[in-house]
Amino acid sequence: MKMNLKLLIILCVGLLIACGDNASDDVSTTKSKAPNKGQEDREYIKQSYREDGTLQGENYIENGDLIDRVYYTNGQIREEEVFKNFWKDNSQNRPNLTKHWTERQTRRWNQKGQLKDETILKLNGLSIERKWHINGQMWWEEYFSVDSSKSHKKAINTNMIHLQNDSLSRQWSSNGQLIFEYRFKAGKEMRCKHWDEDGNEIECD
How far is CA 32 from CA 22, 40, 96, 171, in A? Predict the structure, then answer.
């Protein structure tokens, strides 16, 4: 009788411990579904995942801006586009990215999180395009204006903008030496400067 009682007590204690473990697992799972801090105001449009469950891309609206992101497999952002002051067109089922914004910011990173290039396109103001060498040194920088009378669709094509408007471009070597400077007026070259690796000014080709 005593042996049966001891066995019964051992079984009950084991069941209590097992129930406790399962309860902890349930709480942990519930917490993982809670929204991340600072993301409560995001209105998600779409999220896509790879076969292994990692986030591949997403777009959402936050603080009046439309944000579109693509991720590396390690979770680092690969590309990001931010459409500032974005507004919806309720007559369409999807956002119209060719006209519903006033500023477009495009950035790309490598897998280590180093910024490779960025373009800040403003329909009313000075736009900027920058690129970096792999060592982090500035490689290219260009300032240009956008004709606000042009459509958003044309404004997306920065090559067209450079041909139609004023711009100032600079290029550096990987050691930080300025080697080229170009200034265009209404698409025509007005000034060109060129330096060698020692910083001596030489003629442009």
Answer: 16, 15, 34, 47
